[in-house]
Amino acid sequence: MQPRCRLNAADAAHQSSQAARPHITVFSLSLAFNTPQRSRTQGIMGAGGKDASQIQSEVKEYYGETLATTSDLKTNACCTMNAPPKEIRDILAKVPPEVIAKYYGCGSPLPQGIEGLHVLDLGCGSGRDCYVASKLVGPTGRVTGVDMTPQQLEVARKHADEYASTIGYANMSFVQGTIENLESIPSDSIDIIISNCVVNLSPDKPAVLREAYRVLRHGGEFYFSDVYGDRRLPKALTQHKILVGECIGGALYEQDFLRIARRVGFEDPRVLDSAPIDVKDPQLIELVGEAKFTSVTYRLFKLPGLLESLCEDYGQVAVYKGTIPGHRHAYQLDDHHRFEKGRPMLVCGNSAAMVGDSWLGKHFVVTGDRSTHFGLFPCHFSPSTDTPTPGGCASCC
Ligand SMILES: C[S@@+](CC[C@H](N)C(=O)[O-])C[C@H]1O[C@@H](n2cnc3c(N)ncnc32)[C@H](O)[C@@H]1O
Fold first, then answer.
1. 3 state SS of 53
2. Strands in 236-334 per DSSP E
3. Which of 198, 209, 241, 244 has most ligand 1 atoms within 8 Å of its beta carbon, as the pocket-test mutant?
4. Does 125 sit in the ligand 1 pocket, CB within 6 Å?
5. What gap in Å lies between CA 44 and CA 29, rounded to an integer?
6. Whose alpha carbon is nearest atom 13 of ligand 1?
7. N or C, which terminus of the chain has less Cβ within 10 Å?
8. CB 352 within 8 A of CB 368
């Protein structure tokens, strides 16, 4: 029997497209910092024992002074792997060139169907994703970008008025601050948080996730792209200026990320998209050894009291209405849930809550409630590996 949570035809097609996805390549890391006065070994290994504020000021220096445009990145770990969908490309064509030139993202955390919502971009940089989100939320929505680097914010602010005239309304604001302490953002006030290749740069990732959870409304979502490793790196590498600046040294071991996310309340993290990062530079290969890195877009819903640690079966059915622009025929919730328009799909309690009780609720009809429990939801695959998971699954369907 086919597992109900995964192997429909659309999922199979999606999985084969995942297999064909291009890798992100990291090359020429040794060129990332031109410091001829330092020995090669010093340049590569850096100094250990830095505190969080030192790491943060090195990151600020890197994005405020070292890099002028995307082409100055000497690796492409901070480069988006896939072309965004047509609707997003059409909006990008209207974004001012200087904003685009300073784009350093690694994914496409730009959900559609978000008209009228309040979006917060953590580590917005020069603002590319805010500019796109500004159009996606429309005149009744709002976008707030937060970044700690003044030079990045200056560019984001500089072009905001011109962009407002282009699209016909102004709904963006930019705040200087750190994403570990979102003091200017009230609790329970944000519908969607986006972030693109930033959390890995934070020296205090649990604080970032705690703050994200705090500021989201019930039913809000942290929808973000970042870099993860397949293991914990030695401390020297996690503090290495080049590796950190290029979004690799600070990458969390993915299982640690999942632990932190669950601990702060994001009980059932879902992978939407991922691409392995190829490491080609010989010195970098020597440094990271067998460690592998992946760019992943995660979806973390704030649904307190509704997400369980395992997928439970309450006989609930979800139907997608086909109302999200750019997703008229089907909607991809995550890497193993593709909802065809109008086709009833049996879902576990967690998935029912994600599509029925979140900001997505107006785009779905969910029938059934939790009054009758039919046991563990019968899915047999783990969420991110596509490999069979003996004895059921941990929050994957
Ligand atoms: C790789 S760039 C990505 C920028 C933007 N998201 C984009 O896609 O172009 C990282 C950005 O995060 C900001 N950043 C890094 N750590 C931060 C922190 N702890 N608090 C606020 N901003 C931070 C940097 O200033 C920089 O602008």
1. helix
2. 252-253, 270-279, 293-301, 316-320, 330-334
3. 198
4. yes
5. 9
6. 123
7. N
8. yes
227 CA from centroid of ligand 1 (Å): 13
Q: Give 152 Cα–ligand 1 centroid separation in angstroms.
A: 9
Cα–Cα distance list, 213 to 206, 304, 313, 331 (Å): 11, 10, 26, 25
69, 45 contact by CB (below 8 A): no
Instruction: Compute the distance from residue 165 Cα to the ligand 1 centre, in Å.
Output: 26
* Alpha-helical regions (H) of 97-249: 97-101, 128-137, 150-158, 160-167, 205-215, 235-238, 241-245
Q: What is the pLDDT along the chain (397 residues), one digit of tens a residue?
A: 233 233 233 333 333 333 333 444 444 333 333 332 333 323 333 344 788 898 899 899 888 888 777 776 555 566 665 678 899 999 999 999 999 999 999 899 999 999 999 999 999 999 999 999 999 999 999 999 999 999 999 999 999 999 999 999 999 999 999 999 999 999 999 999 999 999 999 999 999 999 999 999 999 999 999 999 999 999 999 998 888 888 999 999 999 999 999 999 999 999 999 998 876 677 878 889 999 999 999 999 999 999 999 999 999 999 999 999 999 999 999 999 999 999 999 999 999 999 999 999 999 999 999 999 999 998 754 443 333 343 334 445 5
For ligand 1, whether the C-beta of 127 sits within 6 Å is no
Q: How many CA atoms lie within 13 A of 217 on its CB side?
A: 13
What is the model's pTM? 0.86
> Which among 53, 60, 63 is the best mutation to test ligand 1's pocket, defined by most ligand atoms within 8 Å of the CB?
63
Q: How far is the CA of 4 from the centre of ligand 1 (A)?
A: 40
